[in-house]
Task: inverse folding
């Protein structure tokens, strides 16, 4: 619609350069402090990295929540097991002979 | 920013008189570029959050109150659908496909984008005057009279007049304020309260809500309210003129009285 003015071009150029170099510096610093997760690549990498890094920063000095003894539930819940693999079932049927 | 500000038509005073006062030839912007961009990013994120949220819910469609909740504790209520985990008793002899992996990744990624976009939006509307001019009710609007008039208009299913293509009425303003400053903060808070990492750093995020399961239940109900808002929002856009409202939110060009569809 409106033609790009020289001032706008310069300002956006500087902003883009600052943004890119800022990101690069942030990545180096994050790498140095162990804020980059092993699964930082791929489609969900950016979100995973943000979550991982902010959790590491948040919990630097915090411990897990503690509960009073009275909170222990009477019927203990065993967590669900993942479905057994076919290979495991075969070994189980053979009583782990081989 | 500067140019879109200068062509924006000031809403309240100028428009309440008559919509025909807007010359049809002037290039006018109904929504600023910032509002349009953040609107569509939020819309996209909300869609992703909704779909993945439903997928995550399916893995355990039971809700509890307090700190503890599992298949051995009595639920507050159940959603009458099959689950994607075979150990969850649903009463259906059927286990849905488990989509939790990508759903959790996408739920968090979309939440990050939505929260950052929301922050940008909230901070900038304080400075651009969008909050004061377009969202906070004007002095003359804060009365039972105008409130009841707006509600009566809605109950009679009156189509909005031309002036309403340029500014929000009282009900719209209150609804948007409620969504922006109550529902969104609450859904973010309850979401964070389910995170063991956040809770270990700031235990009050979950203790104030009454426990992790309470946080999950509130998260669910706030999401239901947000979906209700979305449905009403879409219905109202259709009633007010789908083409003109969509154009206003995509290109920024509002319908002048002559070209209203």
Result:
């Amino acid at each position: 619609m409106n033609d790009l003015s020289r001032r706008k071009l310069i300002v956006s150029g500087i902003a883009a350069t600052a943004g890119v170099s800022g990101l690069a510096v942030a990545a180096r610093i994050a790498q140095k402090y162990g804020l980059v997760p092993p699964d930082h690549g791929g489609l969900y990498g950016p979100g995973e990295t943000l979550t991982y890094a902010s959790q590491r920063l948040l919990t630097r000095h915090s411990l897990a929540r503690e509960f009073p003894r009275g909170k222990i539930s009477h019927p203990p819940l065993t967590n669900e097991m993942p479905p057994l693999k076919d290979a495991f079932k075969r070994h189980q049927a053979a009583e782990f002979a081989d | 920013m500067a140019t879109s500000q200068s062509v924006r038509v000031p809403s309240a005073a100028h428009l309440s008189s008559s919509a025909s006062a807007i010359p049809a030839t002037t290039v006018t912007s109904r929504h600023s570029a910032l509002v349009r961009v953040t609107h569509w990013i939020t819309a996209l994120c909300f869609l992703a959050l909704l779909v993945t949220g439903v997928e995550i819910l399916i893995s355990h469609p039971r809700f509890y109150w307090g700190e503890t909740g599992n298949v051995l504790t009595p639920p507050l209520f159940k959603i009458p659908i099959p689950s994607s985990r075979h150990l969850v008793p649903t009463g259906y002899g059927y286990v849905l496909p488990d989509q939790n992996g990508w759903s959790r990744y996408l739920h968090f990624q979309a939440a990050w984008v939505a929260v950052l976009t929301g922050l940008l939006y909230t901070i900038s509307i304080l400075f651009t005057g969008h909050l004061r001019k377009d969202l906070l009710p004007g002095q003359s609007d804060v009365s039972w009279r105008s409130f009841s008039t707006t509600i009566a208009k809605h109950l009679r299913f009156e189509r909005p007049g031309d002036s309403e293509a340029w500014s929000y009425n009282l009900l719209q303003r209150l609804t948007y304020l409620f969504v922006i400053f109550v529902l969104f903060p609450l859904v973010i808070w309850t979401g964070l309260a389910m995170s063991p990492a956040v809770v270990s750093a700031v235990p009050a995020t979950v203790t104030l809500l009454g426990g992790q399961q309470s946080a999950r239940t509130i998260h669910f109900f706030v999401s239901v309210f947000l979906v209700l808002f979305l449905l009403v929002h879409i219905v109202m856009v259709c009633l007010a003129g789908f083409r003109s409202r969509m154009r206003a939110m995509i290109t920024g060009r509002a319908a002048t009285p002559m070209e209203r569809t």
In short: The CA atoms of residues 48 and 54 of chain A lie 10 Å apart. The mean pLDDT of chain A is 85.
